[in-house]
Amino acid sequence: xxxxxxSPAEADAFRAKCTTFLDENATGIHLDGAPEExxxxxxxxxxxxxxxLEDAGLTGITYPVEYGGQGLSREHDQIWRxxxxxxxxxTGELTISHGMCLPMTSEYGTHEQKAAYLSDIIAARxxxxxxxxxxxxxxxxxxxxxxxxxxxxTWVINGQKVWTTLAHLSDYGVIVARTNxxxxxxxxxxxxxxxxxxxxxxxxxxxxxxxxxxxxxxxFTDVSxxxxxxxxxxxxxxxxxxxxxxxxxxxxxxxxxxxxxxSRSDQLIEVAQKNGKITDPVIRxxxxxxxxxxxxxxxxxxxxxxxxxxxxTPGPGGSLTxxxxxxxGNLYRDxxxxxxxxxxxAWGDAAGATWQRLALTGLQMGIAGGxxxxxxxxxxxxxxxxxxxxxxxxxxxxxxxxxxxxRN
Length: 408
Fold this sequence. Notes:
Structural class: alpha+beta
Strand content: 5-15%
Number of domains: 3
CATH superfamily of the largest domain: Butyryl-CoA Dehydrogenase, subunit A, domain 3
Order of helices and strands: HHHHHEEEEEEEEHHHHHH
Mean pLDDT: 87
Low-confidence stretches: none
Distance between the termini: 53 Å
CATH topology of the largest domain: Butyryl-CoA Dehydrogenase, subunit A, domain 3
Radius of gyration: 22 Å
CATH architecture of the largest domain: Up-down Bundle
Number of strands: 8
Number of helices: 11
Shape: globular
Helix content: 40-55%
CATH class of the largest domain: Mainly Alpha
């Protein structure tokens, strides 16, 4: 990745290229408020946008050319993000694939893995999901029971994952599984790449209260994958999982754009102006609070993105951006219902349904990527240096722990 600074003329030319592309292609994802079949229509918009992005030479801006990127500078990436922030987000369904699986494969994959996968991930020819959580291992991912056992030239995986976003639309998944139950729970975990069409992989939808089926349970029954599908070092999966969770928190907390963004308060101000509630002093005060929080979050995101662009793996500070994003989402939800009023709950058209769906789906922000409580623990422990919580299972071999089905 070149580090030489762009001249003003070069920066202006690249900015114009981005703007021209976005004017033509970033026109929004229009579903008219109607529920769609498990996210398939939205994913088609994302893939179409990403294909156009590839044709324009704007995909994977800082990734090496040999792996499907553009090999451009961090300044190029910053310019793209600044301009993209001014347009509707067209790639939300690719957050996991691009924000988590792509950087993990790029950072920890072998040359062969990067050559095989990165170009297709960048261009969204393939979509990837993340498979961490289990029925008995949510916030405590290290208690996972899904196991991977070596059998000659293959790994055989058995177990269950839950809350896997978009597994049904994914071509590959990154999974953590137990490879050594004889050591402490954090020490015997490894990470693997699993093609989602492998025999023995069964995907079942989780039915949400808003009518969506965005999440899934994924079952693995004697699923065989090649030895070379191990991602990173054997039994180093906890460190890998931690790194991936850091990428996840950055992806959730910072999004795909840069610069100062106050899109949520802008939207609600426009609604309040139309229905006359902009004169309510309490609503005006809350709108100002939302705008202040968005501005502050933008500044934190810019710092986090700058660290990423400098080649640093996300650290515990990613929990801060994720927690901020959750708090903004909570205020936005409550304030939107107050401004929109009864139509957001008892709607007669598609517009009302959109507000209701936003209110329901907004609750997941406090869970995805680790709950708010987990984020506060990480911030307290690893950012502020406060004493850690007491761990009663430290050093105990996993096979001796009473977790999940092992309680019996």
